[in-house]
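Objective 1b: paired records.
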Amino acid sequence: MKKLEKFYITSVIITIFFNVAIIVYMYVNSLLDTIINPYFKDVLVIIGIVLILYSSIFSAIYIVKVIASFLIRKEKYTKQEKIKDFKLIIGTIISTSIIFLLFYQHVVVINGPPLGKPVIYLYPQVQMQVQVKLNNVQKLTHTYPKYIDGWNVIASPSGNLLDTNTGRNLYCLYWEGRDDSKIDMSEGFVIPGKDTISFLEEKLSILGLSEREANEFIIYWLPKMENNEYNYIRFRTSDEINNYMQLDISPKPDSVIRVVMDFKSLDKYVVVNEQKLTTPDRSGFVAVEWGARELN
């Protein structure tokens, strides 16, 4: 019994040590602006949670053991054993609680950062009524006009939209949502903050945005990027965008251009594989959407 007890105590100490190592690793990486593969981070989080659960279960079992000793052993349960057991229980509970709080604060992210200001433009060849729907509505946090089972608008070739529910004239549809999408952070671009304008002008043109659309994109995101020493930037693929939020438009557009940028502020330059971008077709009835997410 004593050997088994000693094994459990040693294993709990080891689990606490490993959790401290995970927390320190993640914290140091955040200070050094190292880009961590999100899947590797998920593995570390799962390991950490399992180890915390193990420590918690040990504490619960040991409490039951102490209660049983009080009830069954009584006179045989010496004062020295009581003090040792209480110290072990209190120490395990305190250390596990501290580890849990640190782990939760520095490692675990329940909801990803929001996908900021996705806006949708519609350019039909003739004026027509259009319905726009998003398929992951539980993720939505803000919409304008208010999203009620979709948007219904009369769209003009100029891009002007008339909301049939409110009668208001609009130039775009707006939504924002919680976003825990995982991306391949081994590729992308790392650029000085001062080069943000020229970089975005070039890449947004390649990705199919008009100068007016790119202008609005840059105006919104420039204040969050230009003053950073460096920015890590990656544009999502069509599959990644659709896996997060499918966009259903009726009648179906001839061209759908969706641009989503993920970026992270860096204090120093890091090396990543340069992302290859392709230019989409932009003809006929065109639907355009852009948005971005700032990574923690």
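Objective 1b, second protein:
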Amino acid sequence: MNSIKVSYNLEREDLICSICYDTVHTPLIQCQNGNHFVCFDCIIKCNRNCPICRHSKVFHNKQLEKHIKDQMVACSNEGCSKMLFDWAVQEHLAVCPYKRFKCEFCNELLSIKSLNKHLKTNCNIDWVEYSKGEQSSSPAISAYCKKGHMGYYFELEYIKKSFVLMYHEFVVFFKKGVSNWIVKSLSHKETKSIEITYWLPKTSTKYLIHTTIQIQPEHSLDELDEAYTEIPIEAMEMEFEVTNSDDDTDMTDRFFQQLLPPV
């Protein structure tokens, strides 16, 4: 194996991801040939090769992490274990999954990390969850939703109040209003969009009988107030489908198993 070049004379501009151009954080992923750093989330999308050197492999540089630990501080959000460079703290706090917000339905403070558990156990909201091949739901709507070939099917005309769909990394809020269903979509990670198709009564002349809408999920709870879609309240049926969503379950573990040994 060729020797790995490591320099500790690093400036802030050296610690910029070569793909997304954001400040990198731990784990520090570096290439063999020089001080080219990449975010962990970015490198798993480019075949474990350095985007600058192209053919140079990358590794987890634990030694460098120890050397520059005095320049790093812990995230102040309870539950978050990330160590950050002092100049990147504010950027991280804006998107940290442990940042606390008010619940959409009961105003309790919670984070994205605790959202699903809160909705199922502490919040007075009906819910449906599909995870690991199994479906569960609150009693009030269990008879009116089922797993289809591509996603979920709902009988909206029988669902009396607001509910939440939890589908893998997605959380989709359906708030029942006077004239519309307000639909808000949240994803725990970067992913593709979802599609919702709804049907109106055949007697309706106000809207198209069959309509498909595409929604790009938000990634922060504080963005949901401005990002929403509407479905007419008279809609009778609805289908929910994930489009082009990659399954990267356990991607973190598989990636670190393939990295070069730390130096």
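The radius of gyration is 22 Å. The chain is about 15% helix and 30% strand.
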